[in-house]
Amino acid sequence: MNTVGDLASRRNNNFNLIRMLAAIAVLISHSYPLSQGSVAVEPLAGWLGLSLGELAVITFFCVSGFFISLSRDRTPSTIDFFSARFLRIYPGLLLVLLLSVLVIGPIFTTLRAEEYFRSGAIYSYLRNNLMLFSMQFQLPGLFEDNPWPGINGSLWTLFYEVTLYVLVGGLGAFSCYSKGRRFAGFLVVYAVAYCAFKIVLANTTLLIDMHRMQFFFTWSLPFVLGMSLYRYRQNIQHRFIWFLPLAALAVWSYQEPYFFECFVTAWTYLIFYLGFATNGLFDRYNRLGDYSYGVYIYAFPVQEVLAHTFKGIGPMSMTLMAFPIVMIAAVFSWHFIEKPAMSKRHMAAARLTNSFNGMKAYWVAQGRDAT
Q1: pLDDT tens for residues 13-41?
Q2: How far apart are the first and last CA of the chain?
Q3: What is the rounded radius of gyration, in angstroms, for the C-alpha atoms of the chain?
Q4: Burial of 103 (C-beta count, 10 Å sphere; 0-12/13-18/19+)
Q5: 3 close to 276: Cβ distance less than 8 angstroms
Q6: What is the model's pTM?
Q7: 289, 19 contact by CB (below 8 A)
Q8: Helices 52-74 and 15-36 meet at what angle, rounded to 10?
Q9: Separation of alpha carbons 360 and 371, rounded Å
Q10: By C-alpha distance, which of 2, 331, 84, 61 is closest to 219?
């Protein structure tokens, strides 16, 4: 009987397609507020309590938790790991930010060109969004009259994604994936912190902003479940029957305070069951490339342009008009930006390692000279 570990050792799976469908789901979900404003209610959110976009983000994070852990386990050093992560995220991010500032901004801003480029806001926009910590989603005079003002609003997830990459890198540095007790210890610490925060959040009367911490625990949960599936992959069977009790638990907990946790657990298992349920047709799709990141980062600015150009456009019209434009941008980004950048990860890691060793040797020599 196949375990998740048996299937993960093979190259063919459906996760490129799953990520792509999740990225399209984000595009569809964002079409509601971007065309109708903050009062828009997505149909799925009214029924499940989670929007289609949130369901997609859960999917991204659980898949990422598994495969980022696999990446850390297989890379020879921490420098190699972070080089690969940097080159996967930043080239595409830099391009979409530059296009926003240098192309979309000047074309659609209500300011004169010289006034726009003289504004310090465009430079802080680039700096803060590349740093990820204090991201901003407005450029001067841009889309201020749109139903949902701003641009690149979907990039907020990257801060939490990169934060969790750091977590995985740290666990790998301490051999937590190869030593069961250490990883189990991490899970205990995480579970205690998660439960403590949920209790505090439910009962606190303190006037403090817990927004960022709440987002961290919300989106780290599927990521940590993905990490756990990877760590215990040889002990987890790939059988649909095991999804059924998890689904029943999620249904039973509906509208209870712990529904989110039960639902995310069931959804994560379902995603990995489908991801490893290989099919010849889906295998052919995987050979095309991983366009999901491009779809995710380009959809929001394209949809804002459509909202500005076609006043009163509806969610379905926006989705149908945006999709082909976004796909062209995503295909270009993968083949000419993301994939070439990823191919240089080993070279980048070697150069960083040599630089680090050179600096280390220099400071050791300085210490000897001082004595």
Answers
A1: 899 999 999 999 999 999 999 999 988 88
A2: 64
A3: 22
A4: exposed
A5: no
A6: 0.92
A7: no
A8: 140
A9: 17
A10: 61
